[in-house]
Specification:
Helix content: 10-25%
Low-confidence stretches: 19-27
Largest sheet: 5 strands, mixed
Shape: globular
CATH superfamily of the domain at 30-88 and 126-155: Immunoglobulins
Strand content: 25-35%
CATH architecture of the domain at 30-88 and 126-155: Sandwich
Number of helices: 4
Structural class: alpha+beta
CATH topology of the domain at 30-88 and 126-155: Immunoglobulin-like
């Protein structure tokens, strides 16, 4: 009986630690944010393309489309330093369609069955320096803080 009594305080200590630490563990995984803003090049909002975010440790990356009004929104972005890249080259019309030969990009029967078919992509294309498409060369970085935040991406 003496051994049973000496084990009881340790169980109470364990239960106390569990109760004390559990609220801190529930819902307190990695802190995240919702980040939205406008992408501009030479003071004009882009009309399409992609914004890419990557953590500086390269353990998380995501990309979202740029709306026709230049806006973007990311959800569940990890808090901390983020590197940014902006891609518009995917909207660029092909050289053949620019000269009036061939079909415009994506203008084929198979492409029209594709859910991401976008016949107006070429009209929204804005040429930006290719360095902005590369995280390492873009020079675009900022600090994400928890919650909702606005961050406009200005390409000089």
């Amino acid at each position: 009986m003496h051994e049973r009594l000496s084990a009881r305080p340790w169980r109470l200590v364990g239960l106390g630690l569990f109760v004390a630490l559990t609220p801190g563990m529930i819902g307190c995984g990695a802190s995240t944010a919702t980040v939205s803003g406008v992408v501009k090049y030479k003071d004009t909002s882009l009309k399409g393309g992609t914004v890419k975010f990557q953590t500086s440790d390269k353990k998380w990356a995501q990309d979202v489309p740029i709306g026709t009004d230049g806006t973007y929104t990311f959800h569940k972005v990890p808090v901390g330093p983020i590197q940014v890249a902006v891609v518009t080259s995917t909207l660029k019309p092909s050289a053949a369609s620019a000269r009036g030969r061939g079909r415009p990009p994506g203008d084929s029967p198979a492409a029209k069955d594709n859910p991401i078919y976008d016949p107006g992509a070429g009209d929204r294309y804005v040429a930006i320096p290719l360095k902005y498409e590369d995280y390492g060369k873009s020079g675009l970085e900022f600090e994400v803080t928890k919650g909702k935040m606005e961050h406009d991406i200005i390409l000089p």
